[in-house]
Write a structure and sequence with these properties.
The chain has about 400 residues and is an alpha/beta fold. Strand 5 and strand 6 form a beta hairpin. It is globular and about 60 Å long. The chain has 2 domains: about 240 residues, Aspartate Aminotransferase, domain 2; about 120 residues, Aspartate Aminotransferase, domain 1, CATH 3.90.1150. The protein has 13 helices and 11 strands.
């Protein structure tokens, strides 16, 4: 008998890399009646929201521009507002989402120079540096980096790429996909010299999908004045101009905006450093379980480990889709499937946003049961015990005997 029954009403948490679990406080904030976005009081919602978003992006000089969309719409907005057809962009491909950004650029008739990397590795700052140094005529107009590759559970060093750009004195704009890292892991737009930072509402902000959130530097805003890629709905100038007078150029996603305002209050009340530490702690507990099972992460080394998602290889001869399907059909819990080169080879555990120790442990326990059902070579309870031990030692204020 399946545990996935309507009577449960969606009580089980999800362990996918997004959309994430929504805290009740944010669900209630989004549960509002329609209001008039042309009324004078709309600015009372908009202005604090944009100001608090700057704190999360860690920018004082950049502008925050939002669109009713998802992260993919944010990608498109970043590209079309700052580049012209035929412009050359430099990008590393090391997972499905960096690949999709490449595809988007190619569809906009950009000249895409690709650095192909092994999946499980991060953005290669040294290779970026080599390509930029060789570009003496500065034909490369944009450098694209995926901060957190959701398909492989890999976090890249954005600052190292910026340093490679600075070392070569290259004037290209730096674009960063921080969709699955912002509000979960430290991101420093100004310090890292990021010109366009793309995120969305459905991951670290713990909301429904429906809002693209883009941090835009002054340099990128200047580029928007001469860029020739077509854009209408995603025009920075239209949105920034309307926002400046306290408005929106078309219908805003009001319910999500109210939720985002509350999400920002929640994050800032906790303190961003505490948010980052909590994500690391939750993620490390998941990694302890993976070690106990004897399974390998896709991320090649600890410096690359993501604190929002872990991609885990299944043993040779097994299909990861069978595992995720079984966990859902029998126990009513969703885990991320393998994407691209990881399809059938790895499953993903999302551990971002609204998760507690108890929730994380429940996911690990369900995974163990599903793996045991499918005759994985694991010992039932081993991952749970390893995670329990880590959480106890990292949470308890008194010394715990070994």
């Amino acid at each position: 008998m399946s545990a996935h029954l309507p009577i449960f009403g969606g009580q089980n948490p999800v362990f996918i890399p997004g959309p994430t679990n929504i805290p009740d406080r944010l669900r209630y904030a989004m549960s509002i009646q329609t209001t008039d976005h042309r009324a004078p009081d709309f600015v009372e919602l908009l202005e604090p929201l944009l100001a608090d978003l700057k704190k999360v992006f860690k920018t004082t000089t950049g502008k925050i521009i939002t669109f009713p969309s998802t992260g993919t719409g944010g990608w498109e907005a970043a590209i079309t507002n700052t580049l012209s057809p035929g412009d050359k962009v430099l990008v590393a491909r090391f997972g499905m989402f960096s690949h999709r950004w490449i595809d988007l650029c190619q569809r906009h008739n950009l000249d895409v120079e690709i650095i192909d990397c092994e999946w499980g590795q991060g953005a290669p700052a040294d290779l970026y540096g080599e390509r930029l140094a060789a570009d003496r005529e500065h034909k490369i107009k944009a450098v694209l980096v995926t901060h957190n590759e959701t398909a492989t559970g890999v976090r890249s060093d954005v600052n190292a790429v910026r340093q490679a750009m600075d070392t070569t004195n290259h004037p290209a704009l730096l674009y960063v996909d921080c969709v699955s890292s912002l509000a979960c892991m430290d991101f420093r737009m100004d310090e890292w010299g990021v010109d366009l930072a793309v995120s969305g509402s459905q991951k670290g902000f713990m909301l429904a999908a429906g809002m693209a959130i883009v941090g835009v530097s002054e340099k990128a805003l200047a580029a928007a004045e001469t860029a020739k890629c077509p854009r209408c709905f995603f025009d920075f100038r239209d949105m920034a101009g309307a926002n400046a007078s306290g408005g929106f150029p078309y219908t805003p996603p009001l319910q999500i905006m109210y939720g985002l305002g509350e999400s920002l209050k929640l994050l800032l009340e906790e303190g961003l450093d505490n948010v980052f530490a909590r994500h690391f702690r939750t993620a490390e507990g998941v990694r302890e379980a993976t070690r106990a099972w004897g399974l390998d992460l896709c991320a090649k080394r600890p410096s690359l480990y993501s604190d929002t998602v872990s991609a885990v290889f299944v043993p040779e001869g097994l299909n990861s889709d069978d595992l995720t399907n079984h966990a859902f059909e029998v126990y009513g819990i969703s885990f991320g499937v393998g994407l691209g080169q990881m399809a059938g080879k790895a499953f993903r555990i999302g551990h971002l946003g609204s998760l507690t120790d108890a929730m994380a442990l429940s996911g690990i326990a369900i995974l163990e049961m599903a793996m045991k059902d499918l005759n994985y070579p694991i010992q039932l309870g081993s991952g749970v015990a390893a995670t329990q031990d880590y959480y106890r030692k990292s949470a308890c204020p008194v010394e715990i005997a070994a």
